[in-house]
Write a structure and sequence with these properties.
An 8-stranded parallel beta sheet has the order 7-6-5-4-3-2-1-8. The model has no long low-confidence stretch (mean pLDDT 93). With 216 residues, the chain is of the alpha/beta class. It has one domain: TIM Barrel (Alpha-Beta Barrel). The protein is 37% helix and 19% strand.
Length: 216
């Protein structure tokens, strides 16, 4: 029993989230800026899927944690083409495919080493100028292109709703677009809104603070 006022451990947070998740939803623990010891603690609690935002930070962690079997890496941050070389072949998922140039670079790097990466097309549903993501009307052509490239498995779609808007309509719109394209995965929902995302059909949720706590 955790004493009143005592901070929750990472293991306790993992258990608390998992107790509310359907079996069909994958919890991705976003470990950006977290020390490798925190990842090991979550791993010891049964967590296997981890998300990173920065390619070089991720590469260092992947090296340091290479002894952990079945650890699955998701890249969930904005990705420059010149950083793709750091991901192949150890990243299993990339959640932020948003342009043709990036699709071609991912295909080149992963196919060159005989690997396949699952990609999700990031959709900028709010039309936010400062945010990465593909415009909704550009999603279908990008999916069609990526499906033809070696080394890529187009798995689904991802979004981050505008922070000042209700997330549910954005999640519902992403689900409808996913269904229209005949894809399976929906990466949506973070620490503040993941229960809504699950209600709207998320198959992957990306939680940082809810797993690792506040970074200060």
């Amino acid at each position: 029993m955790i004493a009143s006022g005592e901070p929750l451990t990472i293991a306790a947070r993992v258990a608390a989230v998992r107790s509310r998740l359907p079996a069909s939803v994958t919890l991705v623990a976003v470990s950006k800026l977290q020390p490798q010891e925190a990842i090991r603690e979550a791993y010891a609690a049964g967590q296997r899927h981890f998300g990173e935002n920065y390619a070089q930070e991720w590469r260092a962690k992947a090296d340091a944690l290479a002894d952990l079997p079945d650890l699955t890496w998701h890249f969930v941050g904005g990705l420059q083409t010149n950083k793709v070389k750091y991901l192949a072949p150890r990243a299993a998922w990339v959640h932020t495919l948003d342009r043709e140039e990036l699709a071609r670079e991912l295909a080149k790097r992963f196919s060159a080493v005989g690997a396949t990466v699952r990609v999700l097309v990031e959709v900028n549903l709010g039309g936010e100028q400062q945010k990465s993501g593909c415009a909704p009307e550009r999603v279908e052509p990008l999916v069609a292109l990526a499906r033809q490239l070696p080394g890529l498995e187009v798995a689904g779609l991802m979004c981050i709703p505008p922070p000042d808007e209700a997330p549910r309509p954005h999640f519902a719109r992403l689900r409808a677009l996913r269904d229209q394209l005949g894809l399976r995965e929906l990466s949506m929902g973070m620490s503040a809104d993941w229960p809504i995302a699950v209600e709207e059909g998320a198959t992957l949720i990306r939680l940082g603070t809810a797993i690792f706590g506040s970074r200060g």
